[in-house]
Amino acid sequence: MAQTDTGQQDWIELRVSNEARDDAEELRRRLDQDGYLFFKRLQNPDRLRALRREMFMVMQGGGWLVAGTDPADGIANLDARCTEGDAEYTDVYHEVYKLESFHRAAHQPDVLGMVEQIYGKPAMPHPQKIARLWFPHYTEHTTPAHQDFVHFQGNFQTLTCWAPVGDCPRELGGLAMLAGSHKTDQVLEHHFSLGAGALDVELGEEERVRAWHSTDYEIGDTLIFPALTIHKALPNVTENRLRVSLDNRYQAIGDPIAEHMLLPHLNLFNQLGWEDVYRDWESDDLKYYWKNLENPVVPRDLSYLDKGFDEAVDLAKAGDPHARHFLARFLKRDPESPQARIAETVLEEASD
Question: What is the pTM of this model?
Answer without folding.
Answer: 0.95
